[in-house]
Specification:
Layout: H1 2-13, H2 18-30, H3 34-47, H4 53-64, H5 68-85, H6 88-102
Helix pairs in contact: 1-2, 2-3, 3-4, 4-5, 4-6, 5-6
Length: 103
């Protein structure tokens, strides 16, 4: 819980820090607050579509919630952005998770 409070304090100082938002979202998932985590991931990706690491975590969260259609959409967007950014490792991780879901 202390970690979450520190991350929230960092966000109060810089509300659009994608790295801190991403870290907070991961901590919120650990605490079982998927709704708040989902909002943070979506905020990051709408503001900064090239923040590739958040696509995987958002799509996995949606999969766990049983929302395969939304997860597929985010995987596809992530694949596109990873390709643009030349991030082959992220692309491969997204592709593997995406294929596992659709097949």
């Amino acid at each position: 819980m202390e970690r979450i409070e520190k991350l929230k304090e960092f966000l109060r100082q810089n509300p659009k820090d994608s790295f801190v938002q991403h870290a907070l979202a991961l901590e919120l998932i650990k605490m079982g607050d998927d709704g708040a985590a989902q909002k943070l991931f979506e905020d990051i990706l709408y503001r900064e579509p090239g923040y590739v690491g958040s696509y995987y975590h958002l799509a996995k969260l949606l999969e766990r919630q049983g929302n395969a259609e939304a997860a597929i959409k985010w995987y596809e967007k992530g694949l596109e952005q990873a390709k643009i950014a030349g991030e082959s490792r992220a692309y491969n991780e997204l592709k593997s998770a995406y294929e596992e879901l659709i097949y």
